[in-house]
Amino acid sequence: MENIQQNKSTDKVRLMLIDDHKLFRCGIKSLFENSNNICVIAEAQNGKEGINKILSQNPDVVLLDLELGDINGLELIEKVSSQKPNVKFVILTSHLNEHVINKAMKLGIYGYILKDINSEFLDMIVKTVSSGAMWIDKKAVQILRELNPNVIPNTQMSRSNFKSTHANLTAREYEVLKLVVDGKSNQQIADKLNISEHTSKAHVCNIIQKLVVDDRTQAAVKAIREGIV
């Protein structure tokens, strides 16, 4: 039995949290307590402690704030990324600064998330990042588009590509999908569009089927990846 439990733990994504607010770390950690895919293996309250634990604990993904008290998150990434090239760094912050975002991208981060994100997305984002994909908040994406207009396609181009791939998505379903991406519940979608909750739920189910995903979170991920929002 013990060996089986160890194997299950080994299969999970090894996540580390670095934030100088203990209450915030506890809140994030609690989100993963019942996760079948993610295990929080370490926490740190500042940059120095974070560096030491990254080097000793070998996490798969590090979720860190920009402001860590002694050094900032970007400095931490610079100091350890060459020693731990397989660690995937995800910034979780309340700041939207074009200089910071651009530097973070150059450092090779795998995620840039704002702290007002819907908590149910975090599990999915960590799993997405651990597989080698990126997750950038849509507000940060807009800034990156403005900085790199010839590299990152604009919304209209991406939306056209999305529609050519998923032409069977109706106009109403497109409206619902945008609200799903914003983290709205079925009842909130119903209130926003002046429809019943039953109808809202039906639209969400249709979207999930048409996008060939398992749930509303994956539908949101796919929509963002394909540029519909």
- First-last Cα distance: 46 Å
In DSSP terms (H or I, runs of 4 or more residues), the helix count works out at 12
Q: What general form does the structure show?
A: elongated
CATH architecture label of the largest domain = 3-Layer(aba) Sandwich
The CATH class of the largest domain turns out to be Alpha Beta
Strand order of the largest sheet: 2-1-3-4-5-6
User: Helix-strand pattern, N to C?
Assistant: HEHEHEHEHEHEHHHHHH
Class from helix and strand fractions: alpha/beta
Q: Give Rg in angstroms.
A: 19 Å
What percentage of residues falls in helices of 4 or more residues?
40-55%
Question: What name goes with the CATH superfamily of the largest domain?
Answer: Response regulator
- Any low-confidence stretches, pLDDT <50, length ≥5? 1-9, 151-164
Provide the fold topology.
Layout: H1 2-11, E1 13-18, H2 22-31, E2 38-44, H3 47-57, E3 61-64, H4 73-80, E4 88-93, H5 98-106, E5 111-114, H6 120-130, E6 135-136, H7 138-147, H8 155-165, H9 171-181, H10 186-193, H11 197-210, H12 216-225
Parallel strand pairs: 1-2, 1-3, 3-4, 4-5, 5-6
Descriptive terms for the model:
229 residues, alpha/beta, Rossmann fold, Arc Repressor Mutant, subunit A, 2 domains, six-stranded parallel sheet, 12 helices, 6 strands, elongated, disordered N terminus
